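Quick one:
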Amino acid sequence: MADYDRRQSGGYNSRKRRYRDDDDHYDRRQQRRRTDVAPAPIRLRRQLLGLADSPLRQWDAEVQSIAHLLSDNHEDEQLRESFVNLSLQLVVEQPLKTPFVAAVVLVTNSLKPDVVDVVLARLAQAVDSNIALGDWRQVKLLLKFLACLQSCLEGDGIFPLLEELFGRAADLQTASSDDTIGTEIVKIILLTIPYAMAAAPGQFQQKAADLMDKTDIIASEPHALQALVDPFHPEGKNESPAASRSLCMLLQKQLQAEASNNWELACLPRPWQLPLEEIEAQDKLASTPKHALPAITVPQTVTAGPRPLFPEVFFSVYADQETESVPGPTNIAASLIRDGLVDTINVLDFNRNAVARYLMDLDCYFADGTFVKRATPYDELRNFPNGRATWKPEDVAVDTVFSQLFLLPKPERKVVYYHSVLTEACKLAPAAIAPSLGRAIRYLYRNGPRMDLELNYRFLDWFSHHLSNFGFTWKWAEWADDTQLPDIHPRKWLLFGALDKEVRLSFAQRIQKTLPEPYQPLIGPEKEKDVPDFKFSDPDVPFSKEGQEIGALLRRKAPDEELQAVVDSIQSQAGEQALDPVVASTDVFMTAVCWVGSKSLSHVLACIDRTKGRLLDIGSASAAARAQVITAVMSYWQAHPGVALSIIEKLLNYSVLTPFSIIDWTLGAGTPANGTRGGESLAQPHMLELVCNTVAKVSGRVRLVLTSPDADDETRDKEVQAMRDLFGAIADALAGWAGGEDETMTTDDDADGPGDREATIRRWGQRWLRVFRRLAAIEEAFVADARKDRMATTKDDEAA
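Output:
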């Protein structure tokens, strides 16, 4: 009966009864308007943090509300201090909001001018200290805030400070054409000028013109290091698409175009310009008191600071579209929008979700009409009338993240951070972001052969990681024809690398189900096996009996004496067959170790730990023995190169292998057992990964020693020389392939003919050589800076 009653109570028309019951008890008295009863400092903080975040709220209303709240509670010291601190924090952590924070200060100036004096004093102090520290990003962000306050500054405002900064940049460039601090200062000056001109329209045009005449001397000349960081590596004498796209050079030309257009700066928001109905408040803003800019000291000698500085090159993944969906390189909006977004992404690296949110709300922080409506299909842009903006906010956001992911010589944050930002953005607005990402992927794939090899690797690394977050789905049919290309073709390299990474992130059968038929041969049946076949299980393989014996001994953790007896047997048989005894026994032993530990990575590492002593003896025996260790590991795990690389890294940590043995095996062919395959190793993504991992381990060791206060000069010099020797060995080995002079380069078995094969391998050699020359230059720069810092510390200690 109880069940029956429950069914009846939830039966037909119960919704109407519930609503009617609610009506019976509804209080029809007039409800009082809800008000925020939080203390004023909390309300101020809440409103300031949410400033300009919503497209539904008017900028002027938000700005005036915060300014009046500050003015009405001016006597509250906690509130004033909270406002000053939060304002300075906002402009360096959320730089897209800088003009809006400045607008609050300007409106406050019309109500309580003394607040502005406190803000300027704190701002000048922050600029001063950051210049001294060499923290140039902070300097740029604070100067942008100061430029937005130009209309309330006495005299020429920020321009004398910018001229003094240029003087330091000119001195640095005169002293050395390789200097990067001077270029960075010029970039900061050029990025600051537009905000000063927007804040004080119709004024200071001559000042800006005079300053730009000076910066033109430095900005118009390509930097000596620009070729090092060019994202493109064109073949032969072809010019790079980015050859004339130095960021400073573009900024200079963009500002000159804006000056001839009366500094329109159409993309910048001007929240200090109130609507017509607020004419009285606008008049009050125009007649506010002026304030003197507190003194800011620019030292005679400026420092590079904690972040390595390199010239920047403009790179866009939407560069060759029929209809422009991002600002072109000739438009000042390209630099100003990207600059604000780049700083937001790199400063807020501790919160990828917040960054993704800002990327999606990008259009809230720029002038109306700058972007098209969100999620507008790209095909519709063709129907837009001439003169109307066709920039998609999603494209601009994606383009900016890729510009950082593909930054040379290295991204500012870990690459996986940029991966995660794109993933979060795709989750927030999949319908808007997915088409933008699709066009970016096609551009990167299409231009892969002429891009820098390191950027190619970053692309396939991101691409496979991104697909793993979304069910490994992609329109693979578009590239199906490329599966028929020779294995050494650059596009085939991308396909092999991406699919191998996908298998590492999942398993072969799962990936095969997502691929069309033409791709199936790229994931062979051997990848489906969790445990590769043990070659010594075949009785026809030489030393098969001994290989099985060693495998059985390793499985039951037999003492070394029993292993030695089998090894002696192998070596005696190898001597009778005119084989190298050590190499033959090494092949059997190392293959058995891989087979016994094939259940998981922890199993093989445990097996290596148990046999560490014997492996060290092998490693010290000869170069051929070390090469055979690598050959055995790579051969056994050839279907799963990621596992092989992890094992080799462990053997390198244990000093069983040396960095030189890995380089020689991969590139040099100095021993009979090697992995060069007549140069074809250069066209295998995991080989690049292997060499890069080895170089990173050596250079990381050098950096640790150079920055350690406990290391002596002899140890430092020894480590630095070892690193230089390693880079020299890489360069020597690659020079042979890049020049087509290597004696081991063969031309048989090539579907496209010997000449094409040689030319392709030569091109691979050139691409590899560029990557490692850049890495060598970066490490040399670090060594020079470390020695300079050590000398300065020594002088300070002696003076003390």
